[in-house]
Specification:
This protein is mainly alpha-helical. The chain is built from 24 helices and two strands. Residues 6-14, 77-88 and 305-323 have low confidence and may be disordered.
Length: 573
């Protein structure tokens, strides 16, 4: 019962009216989320185009199902497999026994989840029969399914263009109103008033925090006059300037003059230099080598040799640490690396001017998470307490190994791809919210319809039915709707399509053929709409983001070269 979550859900089965409460939570979330409402409106606009292509797919399935029932008739008594020979009519018995089952087989086939299994009985009987399935897949999967994606993509891009135009119009109108309110009858806005605007913007997380240095930089960029007066043309640039990225981490060196011999300036020149970054990269590579040496038995699937006979280590996920001399060496190396990463983080905080400025950069955020988790685990392991298990160090090894990803920054193209991906995440959150709402709603419906149906109780009739299904033979019993977590796992499995017909067979066994309608509905909405929207978003946004990032890198490179020439000219003078 504990495995399948049935016992914990038994109380809810008695009165399913309580499932309405989570539904109200969902309704409140949708009502207060502008992102979800905008995506639902987008789905509403897509549906008419979607249904037109969907009707063509349905007609294709009807035609081939009808043709398949005629081409592969079933025998009234079932298959007659004798003398180990495949019955020539078993295709009809297994996949085309009637029109309804033929439609179901072809629906699964268009997702390729049952190919080539669905064709093998007929193919064993006659090689030409494969033409039936190949022609169906050419029209259904290669043409109509891609046409469906193209339709979703076209509608998505059209809607994005409309939204962009509307947002630009709204921005211009709002800037006009804001300028009139701040300027009054003077026709200009003074810099003190803008500082008040910056202070108000700092109350909103959607805007990058504007500290004193950034405020001065923005005002200097806006103020084209000599009297600290911002006119309309200059004020209109405000939105674009506020959205500019922070400068690169190395640009913090510009705050120190060449003759500044203070301790902080010296630390900044050290830890923000390219040479220091190269040293850190070498340490990270050394860390990867150490992790590989410590986990070599697990990597090669071998067991420790005779030299480890006195060790109680049982592998990467063993219960106790090694007590051999080599184990002490590795643990010492781990502590030294943890201390090095901590000192790197501390020195960079000092150089950049505090924790807040250090954490403005994504690379530093990534390093800080790895470093702090490593130090916390080392402290738990080596400081005497009720939970003193050095095996946690082995887990931190894997976490620390993630820092190797940072080495990709050395390659310009990888750096552009990663930065473009990170820039897409805020916009992608809208689609993730839509997918969450879809899965949450279907999870509630699934729990209402099928909670407790998948169980291992021999006293109940469902278990006997399950034992005769592919669902049970595939060890899919934990895939059920007995609790919310299990429901999400089932729906995600359907979302990626793989073996979804096997999952469905378990619920058909205990709830009848009507269960197919539930999974077809989620496939149509979750996979064909939500996933295709995600693909359309990636196709539409990624290329633009790559171009933007590449342009930013070029501009930053030009700006740094100019700064280097200015510093060189100063030294010559």
């Amino acid at each position: 019962d504990a495995i399948y979550g049935y016992a914990g859900f038994a109380a809810l089965l008695g009165d399913r009216i309580f499932l309405i409460v989570p539904l109200f939570r969902l309704m409140v979330f949708v009502a207060y989320s502008s992102d979800v409402k905008s995506q639902l409106n987008l789905v509403r606009r897509i549906l008419p185009h979607y249904l037109r292509v969907g009707s063509l797919i349905a007609l294709l399935m009807v035609f081939f199902a009808w043709f398949g029932v005629v081409l592969f008739p079933n025998t009234p008594g079932g298959t007659t497999d004798e003398a180990s020979e495949v019955d020539p009519l078993s295709e009809g018995d297994n996949y085309f026994p009637n029109f309804k089952e033929a439609m179901w087989s072809l629906l699964i086939l268009i997702t390729t989840a049952n190919f080539p299994d669905v064709a093998m009985p007929a193919y064993n009987w006659a090689r030409w029969s494969m033409v039936f399935f190949v022609v169906y897949l050419i029209f259904g999967m290669f043409f109509f399914m891609n046409l469906l994606l193209a339709t979703v993509y076209n509608v998505y891009t059209d809607e994005q263009k409309k939204q962009d135009k509307q947002m630009e119009a709204n921005r211009d109108e709002n800037l006009k109103v804001a300028f009139e309110l701040l300027a009054g009858d003077r026709g200009y806005v003074d810099t003190e008033a803008l500082r008040g605007v910056f202070a108000e913007l700092n109350q909103h997380q959607e805007v990058m925090y504007i500290n004193d240095d950034r405020s001065a930089a923005l005002l200097a960029a806006l103020d084209c006059s000599t009297e600290s007066q911002i006119f309309r043309a200059e004020f209109d640039k405000l939105c674009g300037l506020i959205q500019l990225k922070d400068p690169a981490q190395r640009d913090a060196l510009d705050h120190f003059s060449e003759d500044d011999d203070s301790m902080r300036a010296g630390i900044a020149r050290l830890v923000l230099s390219h040479q220091f970054e190269y040293v850190v990269d070498v340490i990270i590579l050394l860390n990867a080598v150490i992790v590989a040496m410590q986990t070599r038995d697990e990597l090669f699937g071998t067991t420790p040799g005779p030299s480890s006979a006195d060790s109680t280590t049982t592998g990467l996920f063993g219960a106790t640490p090694s007590e051999t001399s080599s184990g002490v060496v590795w643990e010492t190396a781990e502590m030294v690396l943890a201390f090095f990463y901590f000192m790197e983080m501390t020195l960079k905080m000092c150089a950049l001017g505090g924790v807040g400025k250090y954490l403005r950069f994504r690379k530093n955020q990534f390093d800080a998470v790895v470093t702090i988790s490593s130090l916390a685990t080392v402290a738990v392991v080596y400081y005497p307490n009720a939970y003193n298990d050095p095996v946690l160090i082995r887990y931190v090894l894997v976490i620390r190994l993630v820092r190797v990803v940072r080495l990709l920054e050395a390659f310009e193209e990888f750096n552009i791809i990663i930065e473009s991906f990170l820039n897409m995440i805020p916009a992608a959150m809208r689609l993730l919210k839509l997918l969450f709402v879809t899965m949450y709603l279907f999870a509630l419906i699934g729990m209402y319809l099928y909670a407790g149906k998948i169980n291992a109780d021999p006293a109940r009739g469902e278990f006997d039915k399950l034992q005769e299904s592919d669902f049970y033979a595939s060890l899919y019993m934990p895939l059920n709707f007995n609790d919310m977590w299990s429901a999400y796992v089932v729906l995600f499995s359907i979302l990626v399509i793989n073996n979804w017909q096997v999952i469905t067979s378990g619920f058909v066994a205990v709830a009848g053929d009507e269960a197919r309608l539930y999974f077809i509905a989620f496939y149509a909405i979750g996979t064909l709409v939500c996933v295709n929207l995600a693909v359309a978003f990636i196709l539409d946004s990624f290329a633009d983001e790559v171009d933007k990032v590449r342009t930013q890198h070029t501009e930053e490179s030009i700006r740094r070269n100019k700064a280097s020439r200015r510093r060189a000219a100063t030294l010559i003078k």
